[in-house]
From TrEMBL:
<dbReference type="GO" id="GO:0005737">
    <property type="term" value="C:cytoplasm"/>
</dbReference>
<keyword id="KW-0963">Cytoplasm</keyword>
<dbReference type="InterPro" id="IPR031925">
    <property type="entry name" value="TBCC_N"/>
</dbReference>
<dbReference type="Pfam" id="PF07986">
    <property type="entry name" value="TBCC"/>
</dbReference>
<dbReference type="InterPro" id="IPR027684">
    <property type="entry name" value="TBCC"/>
</dbReference>
<dbReference type="GO" id="GO:0015631">
    <property type="term" value="F:tubulin binding"/>
</dbReference>
<dbReference type="InterPro" id="IPR016098">
    <property type="entry name" value="CAP/MinC_C"/>
</dbReference>
<dbReference type="InterPro" id="IPR012945">
    <property type="entry name" value="Tubulin-bd_cofactor_C_dom"/>
</dbReference>
<protein>
    <recommendedName>
        <fullName>C-CAP/cofactor C-like domain-containing protein</fullName>
    </recommendedName>
</protein>
<dbReference type="GO" id="GO:0007023">
    <property type="term" value="P:post-chaperonin tubulin folding pathway"/>
</dbReference>
<dbReference type="GO" id="GO:0007021">
    <property type="term" value="P:tubulin complex assembly"/>
</dbReference>
<dbReference type="Pfam" id="PF16752">
    <property type="entry name" value="TBCC_N"/>
</dbReference>
<dbReference type="InterPro" id="IPR038397">
    <property type="entry name" value="TBCC_N_sf"/>
</dbReference>
<comment type="similarity">
    <text>Belongs to the TBCC family.</text>
</comment>
<dbReference type="InterPro" id="IPR017901">
    <property type="entry name" value="C-CAP_CF_C-like"/>
</dbReference>
<comment type="subunit">
    <text>Supercomplex made of cofactors A to E. Cofactors A and D function by capturing and stabilizing tubulin in a quasi-native conformation. Cofactor E binds to the cofactor D-tubulin complex; interaction with cofactor C then causes the release of tubulin polypeptides that are committed to the native state.</text>
</comment>
<keyword id="KW-0143">Chaperone</keyword>
Length: 288
């Protein structure tokens, strides 16, 4: 019995470490910190993680096998979506063969976006307080939205942007539906009403999330987070769901992957469900 327990503990630590390494590499590419050449290394690490899981099936309970398998599927989907976004396949076209006099063009490389350009090229709000802030459906469609350093603000993001990145918020209410991912960092005393395929939360505290997510949410270095399922309580949310082709019945809001909690047999102390009697999802109608 002791040997099996040690094997499980060792597996938990190794799986979390390997999974986190892959996730960190994806985030670094998404944040323009490393070149997209690393996609090959990421795919190799995903395959190694799957092999590691397969080799552990002799002592892992069926529940943990399924949970870990789903997490690998989720991060593989994240990899595929990011790869398609940054390195789309080139369409085949007919053309003339190049002659010897033509200089071979340089290999296309991904150029990181300078930090000073982020808020010129991305749509969003920065350094605002005590305001109701709204982005329309036409403004956000397939765009990347950035929210940074907001205090006591209510932000309504209509439509379906591609991604939403949220940094350094305090006592705010955020309404957002992204077609791919939502990234939250360094937030406190804030309420999120959000829907996306992926949700990542870092360095945040005392924040409530009413969420719809098709994969598992990921948290790291967080405390006092609470989660509840998003309800379609307005026409705006219903329309965003329709545009994003989200299926309301396919909501994995209970699956929270805490990188700071290694055990898969005990619940993480860093998050909990919002008790049903305390659930009070804000409505954006109050701020339009």
């Amino acid at each position: 019995m002791e040997s099996t327990t040690n094997q499980k503990s060792s597996f938990d630590l190794s799986f979390k470490t390997k999974f986190k390494e892959i996730n960190d590499m994806l985030i670094s590419i998404e944040n323009n910190c490393i070149e997209t050449d690393n996609f090959h290394d990421i795919l190799q690490k995903i395959n190694e993680l799957q092999e590691f899981l397969n080799d552990s099936k002799t002592f892992l309970p069926a529940y943990n096998m399924k949970k870990c398998s789903n997490e690998i599927k989720d991060i593989t989907k994240c990899y595929e979506q990011l790869h398609e976004k940054l390195q789309p396949k080139k369409k085949f076209t007919f053309g003339k063969r190049p002659t010897k006099s033509i200089v071979k063009p340089k290999e296309d490389r991904f150029e990181p976006i300078n930090e000073s350009k982020v808020y010129k090229e991305d749509l969003g709000f920065k350094n605002r307080s005590d305001e109701n802030l709204i982005l329309t459906e036409d403004e956000t469609f397939s765009k990347d939205i950035a929210l940074d350093v907001l205090t006591n603000c209510n932000v309504i993001i209509c439509g379906t942007p591609s991604t939403v990145r949220v940094t350094s918020l305090s006592t705010c209410k955020i309404f957002a539906c992204a077609s791919t991912s939502i990234f939250v960092e360094n937030c406190k005393d804030t309420i999120f009403v959000c829907a996306s395929q992926q949700l990542r939360i870092h360095d945040s505290i005392a924040t409530d999330f009413y969420i719809y997510v098709t994969s598992s949410a990921i948290i790291e270095n967080c405390k006092q987070l609470r989660f509840a399922p998003l309800t379609l309580n307005s026409l705006l949310l219903k329309k965003s769901f329709e545009i994003a082709s989200f299926d309301e019945s396919n909501n994995n809001w209970k699956i929270i992957n805490d990188f700071d909690w290694l055990s898969s047999y005990e619940p993480s102390p860093n998050w909990c469900e919002i008790p049903e009697e305390e659930r009070d999802q804000p409505s954006e109608k109050n701020y339009v």
